Amino acid sequence: MSKVKTKFICSNCGFESIKWQGRCPECESWNTFSEEIVESEKEKNRSAIRRSNYTVSKLKEINSVESDRIKTNITEFDRVLGGGLMPGSIVLIGGDPGIGKSTLVMQAASLIREKVLYVTGEESGRQIKLRASRLNVDSENFYVLAETEMENIVCAMEDIQPGVIIIDSIQTMHKGDLDNAPGTVTQIRECTSQLMKIAKTTQQVVILIGHVTKEGMIAGPKILEHVVDTVLQFEGERHHSYRILRAQKNRFGSTNEIGIFDMHDTGLSEVKNPSEIFLSEREKRTTGSAVTSSMEGTRPILLEVQALVTPSNYGNPQRVATGFDFRRLSILLAVLEKRAGLRLSAANVFLNMAGGVKIDEPAVDLAVCCSIASSLLERNVDSSYVMVGEVGLGGEIRSISNIEKRIQEAEKLGFSNIIIPRNNMRSVGSRTDIKVIPVDNLTNAINAVLL
Q1: Greater confidence, 385 or 281?
Q2: Where are the CATH 3.40.50.300 domain residues in the chain?
Q3: For 9, which of 46, 62, 385, 389 is 20 to 30 Å away at the CA?
Q4: What is the CATH code of the structural domain delimited by 6-46?
Q5: How, if at all, do strands 6-10 and 33-37 pair?
Q6: Contact call for residues 30 and 22 (beta carbons, < 8 A)
Q7: For the domain 276-449, what is the CATH code?
Q8: SS3 of residue 61 by DSSP
């Protein structure tokens, strides 16, 4: 019998080595090497390389008209995708276990007018039927296949000719001509490559559901994210009902759009006006609470920023931020102490973006500073104010983008005042009922909003 050859592959970046290593020399990750079986020489010789037919076209001769997208008829889902599913594309959806990935794709599949083949490697057909009954899914174009062998899946795709194929999940798929176990780097890479070739040649849409690691990253090598056209992250707290669909990569649309859903017993429902949801439980007479406007793609969202400042009775004061960059918080605290004269070096500071939203936009800096100052000075922020602006290291308020959309959203929700950077006044139209207050430094902004 021929000796079985093995190699070690990094599960994070796909780096190959003939021996096990504790640290990957390519991505410098620890304990990510796993043993894989190498294809033998006999198997390589059996598959002789043949010259295939190919076509070379001039760039001017290629039709540049974008194909009609396949609508999922879920507005939030289509927005994140860039207008719908692009024929011939591969979409990868990742998220924590139990967050609602399968629920989302099943609801979308039931509303798609094309034939949909739902391939499940983790559940039986009866379990899929029970979930469909709970979600009130009833579609004549919905086909279910409980299978993990890629050969059988490809045959079913050729027989049914679906427009959309859903693989739940890619980590359970297996190719019979490979000796590696399902979920290994080789199996994930080869199965995804085969699905990619089918999608590009037949113009079918493939939706992959992927597992995530403890750190929240999509499991498998990074080559998996490079092969697919779109990477979507479905996130949210399991103990809260709201879910956020965010695009991390999109070849056919913007990566700034987000979709917001509300989880119920009967499935996911779209949140048409997220600003009202995030501000619905706001307590107007509590110190440390401020309202700001954040742009998520092309849509402005009003959010509540909560801060709590307490004296530190121990050595080092605590700095805790939820939904906001911790390093950015440290910078803003230093600016408040240096430029605004607020004593924060000996105080514990806790910051929270209400609703479980993660914000990385500098336009919320002013609201963060005002909420911290409110909690420290025990003075309420005027509940009729919305604050937007980037805070510089010199204490100046810098201009931001999309100021008109932010003002319109604040006016629509009944706010009577909005504080903006002075340099943004040139972009503000005259037809508005909300009072626009320009500021140029942090001290003036804090004095304007604190009661």
Answers
A1: 385
A2: 67-272
A3: 46
A4: 2.20.28
A5: antiparallel
A6: yes
A7: 3.30.230.10
A8: helix
Helix or strand (DSSP H, E) at 269: strand 267-270
Per-residue model confidence (pLDDT) at position 29: 81
| Pairing mode, strands 347-353 and 299-311 | antiparallel
What pTM was estimated for this model as a whole? 0.74
Identify the H or E element spanning 369: helix 365-377
**Assigned fold of 67-272:** Rossmann fold (3.40.50)
Q: How far apart are CA 182 and CA 187, in angstroms?
A: 6
Q: Is 124 exposed, middle or buried (0-12, 13-18, 19+ CB in 10 A)?
A: exposed
H helix or E strand, kind and range, residue 295: strand 289-296
Name the pairing type of β-strands 90-95 and 205-210. parallel
Q: For residue range 111-156, list pLDDT tens digits in order.
A: 998 999 999 998 998 999 999 999 988 888 999 999 999 999 999 9
CB 373 within 8 A of CB 447: no
3-state secondary structure (DSSP) of residue 444: helix
364 vs 355: CA distance, rounded Å: 15
Q: Could you identify the residue written with the tokens 């005259």?
A: 430
218 backbone φψ class: left, alpha, beta (φ>0; ψ -120 to 50) = beta
